[in-house]
C-alpha cells in the first residue's frame, strides 16, 4: 500500500483566492503592465507614526529579545480587555485574552478549540475565504446560509433555523462583513443572538472591522446585544485593518475561561508568543491617540461613496451600499451571458478574467466567497487608482 505524500486534510485546503488574485496582479505589475488591483484587503496608509515609534523603542530594549508568555504580554492583554469593554460591551479579565499572530490565527484557533469531527458550523454566505477552510481543518462541516444582494447580504433567523440540525454546534457571526461590508443592525444582531442562545450554540464572532463603519452606523457586538451569550462566544479581532498594520501580524481572541485556556495550550505548541516588538506596537495602537485612525476611517468612507456611485453607473451591475469594512460586493449577474470584447462570460470567475485581460483591473470573483454572480472590490487603495479602475470598467461595459 502506497501512502499519500501529503496528508489528505492539508491537501484538501483551497488556496486563498484573494491572495492568489493579488499575487497575479502584482506579477503583472512587475512586468510593467498598468494593472489596478482591488484584490487585497489591505489599507494603503502607513501605520500611524506613534505606533512605529513605540516599536522603534521596543527594538532597543533587551527585555523584548526573550520569550514571553505564549498568550501575550500582560500589558497588551489588559489593553485588549479594555478595548473589548469599550467597543464590544463585554467585561473580561486579561486572562480571557490570547494574543495571536494575526486575526487569521485567531480564527483558526477558535474553530480548532471548540469544533469536533462532524460538528456543523453555520456559515453565513458570502463568507471570507479562510472560514470554510479553518472549519474543515478542525474537522467541522461548514453549512452555508446564503443571503444575496436583495437582502443586503444579511441572513435572517428563519434562514439560520432552516439550516440548523442536531449536529449544529457553532454559528459564525461577522459584522461588518468581509466580503460584503454589510453590517447587522442592533435589532438583527439581538434576534440572531437570542436564537443562538435559545439553541445552546457556540458563536464565533469576527469583529476585525468593527471600528470601520460609516454613516454614523455602529457595529453592535453580539455579546453586547445578548449578554447571556458571553459564556459560549469567542470574539476574534486584531490591529491589521483599523490601524493599517496588516504586516505586523497581531490579532487576538477573547472568550470564556475554559475555551481560552484550551486555546492557549494549543498556541503554546503551535507558535508560542507573538513578536514582542509587534506586541509593544499594539499596546500603543490600542491605548495611544486615535486621530490617525479616525482620519483613515473618514478617507475610507469617502472612497466608499466614490466607488459605489461610479459602479452604479454600469448598466447590469447592482451595488448595495456597504456600511462597514472597505469592500463593495456588486451583483454582476446582469453582465453575464453577454459579449464583451468578443468574450461571453457565463460566471463571475470568467468575468473577472475578462476584466483583468481587457481592462487590466484585478477583482476577486464571487466563487471565492460562495455562489457565482458577484465581484469583490476593495476600496483600500488610493483615490486616483480607485477612480481610474472603475472608469476602465465603465468603458469596458459601455
Summed up, the domain count is: 2
Question: What structural class do helix, strand and pairing data support?
Answer: alpha/beta
**CATH first level of the largest domain: which class?**
Alpha Beta
Number of helices: 14
The portion of residues forming beta strands comes to 5-15%
Quick one: biggest sheet? 7 strands, mixed
Model description:
The protein has 14 helices and twelve strands. The chain starts with 7 loop residues before the first helix and ends with a helix. β5, α8 and β6 (202-206) form a beta-alpha-beta unit. It is an alpha/beta fold and 398 residues long. The longest helix is centred in the last third of the chain and has 21 residues, at 291-311. 41% of the residues lie in helices and 13% in strands. The relative contact order is 0.17. The radius of gyration is 21 Å and the shape is globular. The chain has two domains: 8-46 and 292-396, Aspartate Aminotransferase, domain 1 (Alpha-Beta Complex), CATH 3.90.1150; 54-287, Aspartate Aminotransferase, domain 2 (3-Layer(aba) Sandwich), CATH 3.40.640.10. The strands form three sheets. It has a seven-stranded mixed β-sheet, with helices on both faces. Strands 9-12-11 form a three-stranded antiparallel β-sheet. Strands 1-10 form a two-stranded parallel sheet. α3 (49-59) runs antiparallel to α11 (276-287), α5 runs parallel beside α6 and α12 runs parallel beside α14 (383-396). The chain has helices spanning 8-11, 17-30, 49-59, 74-88, 102-114, 130-137, 157-163, 186-198, 222-225, 257-270, 276-287, 291-311, 348-359, 383-396; strands at 36-37, 97-100, 120-125, 141-146, 168-174, 202-206, 233-238, 251-254, 327-328, 361-362, 364-365, 375-378.
Amino acid at each position: 500500500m502506497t501512502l499519500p505524500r501529503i496528508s489528505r486534510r492539508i491537501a484538501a485546503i483551497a488556496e486563498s483566492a484573494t491572495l492568489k488574485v493579488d499575487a497575479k496582479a502584482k506579477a503583472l505589475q512587475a512586468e510593467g503592465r498598468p494593472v489596478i488591483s482591488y484584490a487585497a484587503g489591505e489599507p494603503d496608509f502607513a501605520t500611524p507614526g506613534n505606533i512605529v515609534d513605540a516599536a522603534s523603542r521596543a527594538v532597543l530594549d533587551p527585555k523584548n529579545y526573550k520569550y514571553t508568555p505564549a498568550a501575550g504580554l500582560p500589558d497588551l492583554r489588559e489593553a485588549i480587555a479594555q478595548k473589548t469593554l469599550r467597543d464590544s460591551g463585554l467585561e473580561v479579565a486579561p486572562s480571557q485574552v490570547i494574543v495571536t499572530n494575526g486575526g487569521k490565527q485567531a480564527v483558526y484557533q477558535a474553530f480548532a478549540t471548540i469544533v469536533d469531527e462532524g460538528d456543523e458550523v453555520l456559515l453565513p454566505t458570502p463568507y471570507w475565504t479562510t472560514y470554510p477552510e479553518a472549519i474543515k481543518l478542525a474537522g467541522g462541516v461548514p453549512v452555508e446560509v446564503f443571503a444575496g444582494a436583495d437582502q443586503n447580504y444579511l441572513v435572517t433567523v428563519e434562514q439560520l433555523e432552516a439550516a440548523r440540525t442536531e449536529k449544529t454546534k457553532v454559528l459564525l457571526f461577522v459584522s461588518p462583513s468581509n466580503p460584503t461590508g454589510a453590517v447587522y443592525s442592533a435589532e438583527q444582531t439581538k434576534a440572531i443572538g437570542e436564537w443562538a442562545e435559545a439553541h445552546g450554540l457556540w458563536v464565533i464572532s469576527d469583529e476585525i472591522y468593527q471600528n470601520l463603519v460609516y454613516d454614523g452606523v455602529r457595529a453592535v457586538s453580539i455579546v453586547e446585544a445578548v449578554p447571556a451569550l458571553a459564556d459560549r462566544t469567542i470574539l476574534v479581532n486584531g490591529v491589521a485593518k483599523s490601524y493599517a498594520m496588516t504586516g505586523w501580524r497581531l490579532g487576538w481572541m477573547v472568550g470564556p475561561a475554559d475555551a481560552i485556556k484550551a486555546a492557549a495550550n494549543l498556541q503554546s505548541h503551535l507558535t508560542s508568543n507573538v513578536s514582542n516588538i509587534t506586541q509593544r506596537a499594539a499596546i500603543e495602537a490600542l491605548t495611544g491617540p486615535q486621530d490617525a485612525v479616525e482620519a483613515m476611517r473618514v478617507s475610507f468612507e469617502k472612497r466608499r461613496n466614490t466607488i459605489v456611485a461610479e459602479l452604479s453607473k454600469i448598466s447590469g451591475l447592482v451595488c448595495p451600499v456597504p456600511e462597514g469594512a472597505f469592500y463593495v460586493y456588486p451583483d454582476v449577474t446582469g453582465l453575464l451571458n453577454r459579449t464583451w470584447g468578443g468574450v461571453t462570460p457565463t460566471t463571475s470567475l470568467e468575468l473577472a478574467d475578462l476584466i483583468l485581460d481587457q481592462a487590466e483591473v484585478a477583482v476577486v470573483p464571487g466563487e471565492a466567497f460562495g455562489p457565482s454572480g458577484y465581484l469583490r472590490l476593495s476600496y483600500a487603495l488610493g483615490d486616483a487608482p480607485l477612480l481610474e479602475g472603475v472608469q476602465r470598467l465603465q468603458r469596458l461595459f459601455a
